[in-house]
What does this fold into?
Amino acid sequence: MCGIFGIYRNVDAAANTALGLHALQHRGQEAAGIVSFNGERFFAHRDMGLVGEIFGDEEIIRALPGYAAIGHNRYSTSGETVARNTQPLFAHMDFGGFAVAHNGNLTNSMTLRKELVREGRIFQSTSDTEVIIHLIAKSRESTFKDRLIWALKKVIGAYCLVMLIDDKMIAVRDPYGVRPLSLGKLGEAYIVASESVAFDIIGAEFVRDIEPGEMLFIGNDGLESSFPFEKVNKRLDIFEYIYFSRPDSIVDGRSVYEARINIGRKLAEESHVDADVVVSVPDSGNPSAMGYAREANLPFEMGIIRNHYIGRTFIEPTDKIRHLGVKLKHNASRKCLEGKRVVLVDDSIVRGTTSRKIVEMVRAAGAKEIHFRVSSPPKTWPCFYGIDTPDRSKLIAANHTVEEVEKLIGVDSLKYISLDGLYQAMGEKGRNNDAPQFEDSVFTGDYPIPLVDVNGGNHSRDNISLIRETT
Ligand code: AMP
It folds into this structure.
């Protein structure tokens, strides 16, 4: 996870970056940072917490002068939850200052890190991103661009990067395009951001998606695009559409909102049940529940109300707090639920903690029947490419059949959308098993990018969960 943002040639670079990060807050709520450049030197501010808390103070923005800035929202998937992992990372290189913000997860960073440490390189953080800095530092190529390409050809994994050097802002999306990245424009300024919602907030126009494998150099003379990596089939993480991206974003040419409505429609088609109302688990389940209701011709009711003054419960790092979080976040409305046969829609079940609590609440509010519908297939594998999913032992669907999960969460019926149904909702004929259109490893265990840190890449489906706990 994580959100990244960068702006080049703008008088309010840091303020606009703070706003962009605010729009991308859903991508990471643990920490945030901005590095700016004023033509002479770099300035940085990073802290733990939400963007509004960190950058709400004018003084802090004023201390980030310059016409260029990059920013980052962190949700740790690799490395500890500590301040020194907060990005953008910054280093003094032989060519000048270098700042980098990363969304995604490298799958060979441990392996590379071990080699680099053995060579005598000293790491400041436990973040996988720092490996990229060390690789650029040690590259013998002559130009910055060639050093960056050399470094990126050594790393394997999912990444979107935005970087800042003395006279350029650089954006790169990994060859598979696992994470989204788009390009925008505000007057003379170019902007890159994880999602297009970051352009809306500052009145910038969406120009286009940055392509998988594309490297963009942005300077005073405009854009220079290149594709330095071997071409592979694009595999955007389908979970960006299911859950992660904001519904008002356009990701790789598709509206996330429309995608979710269509997924909900397909889910209704596949899992019909006689019911009185459709209720979503807000906010993640809202669009798919609306799609479900439209297809099933049932009323959509706000039977669960969300308290907006608490972040995503899942993001809390310990099980104890997460447990509490569900109650802090949701409340069921008796008015909508009493005596009703309820179709309850959520985007995913991970550990099952949220669902169990929500179901208890909906029953306590008087629902007569609860039919749980999930707008993604069962999550049975961990994600190694940047979305936090726990070890297999904690994934309820990895350890129980659908019937068992149905009992465990206490519902009258439970249905997930099928994998092919999901692809059809995305406008495809189904999953093309020879060349899958999306990255969907959490549902299939099909990991397109080698998991080098997992037993040197010699992983089997059996040892995946084991390794994840130790890295
Ligand atoms: P759980 O209680 O572990 O089953 O969590 C399920 C809830 O977490 C669902 O309501 C999802 O919307 C949400 N969710 C799914 N994946 C993630 C994620 N990677 N980060 C944060 N929340 C998530």
Q: What stands out?
A: Residues 330 and 358 are 8 Å apart (CA to CA). Residues 243, 281, 284, 312, 314-315, 346-355, 387-389 surround adenosine monophosphate (CB under 6 Å).
